[in-house]
Design brief:
By secondary structure, the protein is mainly alpha-helical. The protein has one domain. The protein is built from 6 helices and 4 strands. Strand 3 and strand 4 form a beta hairpin. It is rod-shaped, with a radius of gyration of 30 Å.
Protein backbone atom coordinates (compact mmCIF):
# COMPACT_ATOMS: atom_id res chain seq x y z
CA UNK A 1 0.00 0.00 0.00
CA UNK A 2 2.87 2.34 0.84
CA UNK A 3 4.48 1.78 -2.56
CA UNK A 4 1.20 2.41 -4.37
CA UNK A 5 0.70 5.66 -2.44
CA UNK A 6 4.23 7.00 -2.74
CA UNK A 7 5.42 5.62 -6.05
CA UNK A 8 2.43 4.75 -8.24
CA UNK A 9 2.92 3.57 -11.77
CA UNK A 10 2.59 6.48 -14.15
CA UNK A 11 2.76 5.81 -17.87
CA UNK A 12 5.50 7.56 -19.81
CA UNK A 13 4.60 10.51 -22.01
CA UNK A 14 4.83 8.22 -25.06
CA UNK A 15 2.41 5.67 -23.61
CA UNK A 16 -0.63 5.16 -25.81
CA UNK A 17 -3.79 4.88 -23.76
CA UNK A 18 -6.50 2.52 -24.85
CA UNK A 19 -8.75 3.97 -27.52
CA UNK A 20 -12.51 3.54 -27.34
CA UNK A 21 -15.18 4.34 -29.87
CA UNK A 22 -16.91 7.50 -28.66
CA UNK A 23 -19.11 9.90 -30.59
CA UNK A 24 -18.19 8.23 -33.88
CA UNK A 25 -14.46 8.70 -33.20
CA UNK A 26 -11.74 6.71 -31.53
CA UNK A 27 -10.71 8.50 -28.34
CA UNK A 28 -8.31 7.85 -25.51
CA UNK A 29 -9.80 7.02 -22.11
CA UNK A 30 -7.13 9.06 -20.31
CA UNK A 31 -4.99 12.13 -20.80
CA UNK A 32 -1.38 12.36 -19.60
CA UNK A 33 -1.86 15.77 -18.06
CA UNK A 34 -4.64 14.40 -15.77
CA UNK A 35 -2.14 12.07 -14.13
CA UNK A 36 0.42 14.85 -13.70
CA UNK A 37 -2.06 17.47 -12.52
CA UNK A 38 -3.99 15.25 -10.09
CA UNK A 39 -1.52 13.17 -8.11
CA UNK A 40 -4.32 11.00 -6.69
CA UNK A 41 -5.42 9.72 -10.11
CA UNK A 42 -4.21 6.36 -11.38
CA UNK A 43 -4.73 4.82 -14.79
CA UNK A 44 -5.89 1.22 -15.08
CA UNK A 45 -5.45 -0.46 -18.42
CA UNK A 46 -7.44 -3.46 -17.13
CA UNK A 47 -10.43 -1.28 -16.23
CA UNK A 48 -9.85 1.09 -19.15
CA UNK A 49 -9.99 4.35 -17.23
CA UNK A 50 -8.79 6.39 -14.26
CA UNK A 51 -9.53 5.84 -10.57
CA UNK A 52 -8.93 7.73 -7.35
CA UNK A 53 -6.07 5.89 -5.69
CA UNK A 54 -6.96 7.22 -2.22
CA UNK A 55 -10.65 6.31 -2.31
CA UNK A 56 -9.96 2.85 -3.72
CA UNK A 57 -7.17 2.00 -1.26
CA UNK A 58 -9.11 3.24 1.75
CA UNK A 59 -12.29 1.45 0.68
CA UNK A 60 -14.79 4.26 0.34
CA UNK A 61 -18.19 2.67 -0.22
CA UNK A 62 -20.36 5.71 0.41
CA UNK A 63 -20.02 9.25 1.62
CA UNK A 64 -20.09 9.66 5.40
CA UNK A 65 -22.66 12.44 5.04
CA UNK A 66 -25.00 10.30 2.94
CA UNK A 67 -27.64 8.86 5.28
CA UNK A 68 -29.08 6.73 2.48
CA UNK A 69 -25.59 5.23 1.97
CA UNK A 70 -25.77 5.39 -1.80
CA UNK A 71 -22.81 3.50 -3.24
CA UNK A 72 -20.02 5.56 -4.75
CA UNK A 73 -19.42 5.23 -8.44
CA UNK A 74 -17.01 7.05 -10.68
CA UNK A 75 -13.34 7.11 -9.62
CA UNK A 76 -14.03 4.66 -6.77
CA UNK A 77 -15.94 1.59 -7.95
CA UNK A 78 -15.84 2.28 -11.65
CA UNK A 79 -13.22 4.24 -13.57
CA UNK A 80 -13.73 7.48 -15.40
CA UNK A 81 -13.64 6.35 -18.99
CA UNK A 82 -15.24 9.22 -20.82
CA UNK A 83 -13.67 12.46 -21.94
CA UNK A 84 -17.05 14.19 -21.86
CA UNK A 85 -16.73 16.84 -19.10
CA UNK A 86 -13.88 14.82 -17.59
CA UNK A 87 -12.13 17.84 -16.06
CA UNK A 88 -15.37 18.85 -14.33
CA UNK A 89 -15.83 15.32 -12.96
CA UNK A 90 -12.23 15.18 -11.74
CA UNK A 91 -12.46 18.56 -10.03
CA UNK A 92 -15.83 17.69 -8.47
CA UNK A 93 -14.47 14.41 -7.08
CA UNK A 94 -11.47 16.21 -5.60
CA UNK A 95 -13.83 18.37 -3.51
CA UNK A 96 -16.03 15.58 -2.15
CA UNK A 97 -15.90 14.93 1.59
CA UNK A 98 -15.11 11.23 1.12
CA UNK A 99 -12.15 12.05 -1.14
CA UNK A 100 -10.79 14.62 1.33
CA UNK A 101 -11.14 12.06 4.15
CA UNK A 102 -9.42 9.36 2.07
CA UNK A 103 -6.61 11.78 1.23
CA UNK A 104 -6.12 12.53 4.94
CA UNK A 105 -6.02 8.80 5.67
CA UNK A 106 -3.43 8.28 2.94
CA UNK A 107 -1.24 11.09 4.30
CA UNK A 108 -1.51 9.71 7.86
CA UNK A 109 -0.69 6.21 6.62
CA UNK A 110 2.45 7.47 4.86
CA UNK A 111 3.59 9.41 7.95
CA UNK A 112 3.01 6.42 10.24
CA UNK A 113 4.74 4.06 7.82
CA UNK A 114 7.79 6.30 7.49
CA UNK A 115 7.93 7.18 11.20
CA UNK A 116 6.56 4.24 13.19
CA UNK A 117 7.72 5.85 16.46
CA UNK A 118 5.30 8.70 15.82
CA UNK A 119 2.26 6.47 15.34
CA UNK A 120 -0.57 7.77 17.51
CA UNK A 121 -1.26 4.40 19.13
CA UNK A 122 2.38 4.12 20.24
CA UNK A 123 2.43 7.68 21.52
CA UNK A 124 -0.77 7.11 23.51
CA UNK A 125 0.50 3.77 24.83
CA UNK A 126 3.76 5.40 26.00
CA UNK A 127 1.82 8.20 27.68
CA UNK A 128 -0.40 5.64 29.43
CA UNK A 129 2.65 3.74 30.68
CA UNK A 130 4.23 6.96 31.97
CA UNK A 131 1.00 7.92 33.73
CA UNK A 132 0.78 4.45 35.34
CA UNK A 133 4.37 4.74 36.64
CA UNK A 134 3.65 8.19 38.08
CA UNK A 135 0.45 6.96 39.72
CA UNK A 136 2.30 3.99 41.27
CA UNK A 137 4.91 6.32 42.79
CA UNK A 138 2.19 8.57 44.24
CA UNK A 139 0.23 5.60 45.57
CA UNK A 140 3.39 4.12 47.10
CA UNK A 141 4.15 7.36 48.96
CA UNK A 142 0.51 7.55 50.21
CA UNK A 143 0.73 3.95 51.52
CA UNK A 144 4.06 4.73 53.26
CA UNK A 145 2.45 7.75 54.94
CA UNK A 146 -0.55 5.68 56.10
CA UNK A 147 1.76 2.99 57.51
CA UNK A 148 3.88 5.60 59.28
CA UNK A 149 0.80 7.22 60.86
CA UNK A 150 -0.62 3.83 61.82
CA UNK A 151 2.63 2.85 63.60
CA UNK A 152 2.71 6.17 65.48
CA UNK A 153 -0.96 5.76 66.51
CA UNK A 154 -0.34 2.23 67.79
CA UNK A 155 2.65 3.36 69.81
CA UNK A 156 0.62 6.15 71.42
CA UNK A 157 -2.11 3.70 72.60
CA UNK A 158 0.17 1.02 74.04
CA UNK A 159 1.11 1.59 77.71
CA UNK A 160 4.84 1.60 78.51
Amino acid sequence: MYAVLTDPWTPSSTYKFLLVHMHQKMRSVCQHYWLHTYSWLSYSSALQGVLCRYCVLFKRKWSAGDRAKNPLGQFVVKPLSSLNKANEHIQAHEKTEYHVFSKEQAESFIINFENPNKAIDLILDNENQEQEATNRKILSSIIKCILFIAKKSLRGNIPD
